[in-house]
Amino acid sequence: MLDPIKAWHEEHVYFQRLLKLLQHEMDAFACGDTPNFQLMRDIISYLRDWADEYHHPREDEAFARIAKLRPERQLAIARLKQEHRVIARAGEQLEKILEEVEAGDIVPRSQVEIAAATFLVYYGNHISQEEEDILPLAAKLLGENDWAAIKNAGPVKGAVPLERFRELRHRIETEI
After folding, report:
1. Which residues make Cβ contacts (< 8 Å) with residue 140, sequence separation at least 6?
2. What values do phi and psi take at 67, rounded to 5?
3. Between 123 and 159, where is the model more confident?
4. What is the 3-state secondary structure (H, E, C) of 94-159?
5. CA 31 from centroid of its chain's CA atoms
6. What is residue 73's DSSP assignment?
7. Using one digit for the tens of pLDDT, what is the confidence trace for 158-174?
8. How many whole angstroms from its chain centre is CA 56?
9. Using a CB cutoff of 8 Å and minimum separation of 24, what contacts does 66-71 make?
10. Is the pLDDT of residue 17 over 60?
11. Which residues of 82-99 are buried (b: 16+ CB within 10 A; e: fewer)?
């Protein structure tokens, strides 16, 4: 059986790589250069689509199981679940703003920078918190039955990722 903690961590590592690439493009924007807006939108789309459909539902199931076993962790876990919603909304807003910029609409530079910073900071901090606090706790507390339920969490109940995710991931990897 695949080590679920290792798989969870590897997803986070990949997400961090994408956030770093997005930050690189934002740095180009901040310096007055023209970033690769399509790549930026693809990164955001991947992070939003993959996370919302596969990653976060599994995390939410793990969170619920941890909270049940460690009630004193409920507030911290509730904050992480709230961050999932904030990250989703921030990504939606950033993607919309980048579409407007790419379409030639006049968008204040500060609006782009604020939307990007919100997404990047929330996502990065969220991953760090899970890596430092939740993954070690999950490794300690959760058993085989828990991991089976976590694997099947979300609207797709453990289905293989859609082809569009594989294609997008390949495209992004070639850009890195």
Report:
1. none
2. -60, -35
3. 123
4. HHHHHHHHHCCCCCCHHHHHHHHHHHHHHHHHHHHHHHHHHHHHHHHHCCHHHHHHHHCCCCCCCC
5. 26
6. G
7. 445 556 666 666 766 77
8. 8
9. 66/134, 66/137, 66/138, 66/141, 66/142, 69/141, 70/137, 70/141
10. yes
11. ebbeebbebbebbbebbe
120 contacts 145 by C-beta, under 8 angstroms: no
Find out whether 165 and 46 touch, Cβ atoms under 8 Å: yes
CA–CA distance, 82 with 22 (Å, rounded to integer)? 23
DSSP string, 11-23: HHHHHHHHHHHHH
Which tokens go with 75?
A: 């507030």
User: What is the reported pLDDT for 162?
Assistant: 58
Q: How far is CA 168 from CA 52, 65, 135, in A?
A: 16, 32, 27
Average pLDDT for the chain: 89
**What pLDDT does 60 receive?**
92
Identify which has the larger pLDDT, 167 or 46.
46
Q: Please, what is the angle between helix 37-50 and helix 4-30, to 10°?
A: 150
